[in-house]
Amino acid sequence: MEAAWKQVREVLKEVMDEKSYTFWIKPLKLLDSDERVTRLGCPNRFFRNWITENYSALFHRQFSQLGLKDHRITFKVLPHRDLLDFKPHGDNGNGKQLLLPNIPIKARAGGRYLLERFNFDSFVVGESNEFAYSVSKALANDASCPYSSLLLLSQTGLGKSHLAQAIGNSILKKKPTLRVRYITAEEFTNEMIFALKNNLIDQFKTKYRRDCDVLLLEELHFLSGKEKTQVELGYTLDALFTDGKKVIFTSSLPLEEIPNMKKMLTSRLSSGVLTSIEKPGFQTRLDILKQKAAERSISLPDEVACYLAENLMQDIRQLEGALVSLEAISFFMKKEINLNLARETLKQILPAKPLVTIKEIQAMVCKYFKVDLVALKSKSRKKFISYPRSVAIYLCREYTESSLEGIGRSFNRNHSTVLYDYEKIKKNIRIDESVRKEVEFLCRKIEDRPV
């Protein structure tokens, strides 16, 4: 299998531009491989997350071309001692982790890098995001802006992180010396816990209260139930607001619908401008596809762009993924990008799923987890009930045509709670092997059922 990996790397080197290959593919280290799985080592968690999200589909197609259709590729963050083998472009030989491409040192915000490609010029504006774009740009560029706090709400993949980073990039471009902290709520929590355990809490407070001019805090919904983190964040926001500092938040859920959020924090978070980003309409999806195609130098006929925009209505990531797949299939199959190839591509990335009813899924989940249907539909938060309920909701989203509201009614929940449970299981599938195996088993049960 080592030979297969080498062959895949050679093909990727031909397909990708030199800079992307150097930064994202060349540093990967083959850990081990068998007929089912190839495991690759990465220098850090951000690298792993990025390459998983942006290149997994491309890797899978490369192995499929070699006759390994069901082959899985997994990525593991290497221990610090193993990073000495990584010598990315520009490395000085001291074993430091590689930097992101095209990002000047000044764009590093807190412990994270702001991606240079996330700027206002590359953000496609439409009816679904026009207000969010306008207020974000005003907050970033207007020193006399009457507000200093902004909360961006949307489901995943609709551009809230793009706008948050665009604000940071714009501010740093004008004033490179400003101290911009870009961090997720999960990372904020972990950093605070580390500080408490190591008697560094004073340094932590100084970092986010006094030594911070702009705070970009992503994924507020992660704070659900994190009482101590909520209290500390509340005090941090008080200090920042008092000093007139700028604070930008993002969340996949409205504040009032995030479970177990303290009122004192909710009031602070909602004290500025609140704006939501909706799913893009047809014209916006079409504009996004055309821009992404131009960025990748893909010749995309108008009829193909329209076909993709009409059939891909989920989010921006889905549009990008389809475009990358179309490009890869065109290259490897030596076919021109046209309407027929687009139809072929969508059949592969949007396979028809066998439809099943919500009641059938509920019955299956109850039987598997040995839970009573009444308990499954109850308000109980006990783990042995809430976890099966979340799994059932995930399966309903994946295998039925029911809306969020329809699924919610079947479980006595509102649409935002359904979305929260769905995203939670979706995330746990990636990071928890036991969850992944259970969900895959139930998926097979649905897909193998007699129609």
Sum up the structure in keywords.
three-stranded mixed beta sheet, alpha/beta, Helicase, Ruva Protein, domain 3, GMP Synthetase, Chain A, domain 3, 10% strand, Rossmann fold, 451 residues, 53% helix, five-stranded parallel beta sheet, 19 helices, single chain
List the helices and strands and how they pair.
Elements: H1 2-15, H2 18-25, E1 29-33, E2 37-42, H3 45-65, E3 72-77, E4 108-109, E5 112-113, H4 130-141, E6 149-153, H5 160-174, E7 180-184, H6 185-197, H7 201-210, E8 214-218, H8 227-242, E9 246-251, H9 263-269, E10 273-276, H10 282-295, H11 302-311, H12 316-332, H13 339-349, H14 358-369, H15 373-376, H16 383-399, H17 404-410, H18 415-431, H19 433-447
Parallel strand pairs: 2-3, 6-9, 6-10, 7-8, 8-9
Antiparallel strand pairs: 1-2, 4-5
Short note summarizing the structure:
By secondary structure, this protein is α/β, with parallel strands linked by helices.
Characterization of this structure:
The protein has helices spanning 2-15, 18-25, 45-65, 130-141, 160-174, 185-197, 201-210, 227-242, 263-269, 282-295, 302-311, 316-332, 339-349, 358-369, 373-376, 383-399, 404-410, 415-431, 433-447; strands spanning 29-33, 37-42, 72-77, 108-109, 112-113, 149-153, 180-184, 214-218, 246-251, 273-276. It is of the alpha/beta class and 451 residues long. It folds into 4 domains: 2-85, DnaA, N-terminal domain (GMP Synthetase, Chain A, domain 3, 2-Layer Sandwich); 105-276, Rossmann fold, CATH 3.40.50; 289-349, Helicase, Ruva Protein, domain 3 (Orthogonal Bundle); 358-447, Chromosomal Replication Initiator Protein Dnaa, Chain: A. It has a 5-stranded parallel beta sheet with strand order 7-8-9-6-10, sandwiched between helices. Strand 8, helix 8 and strand 9 form a beta-alpha-beta unit. The longest helix has 21 residues, at 45-65.
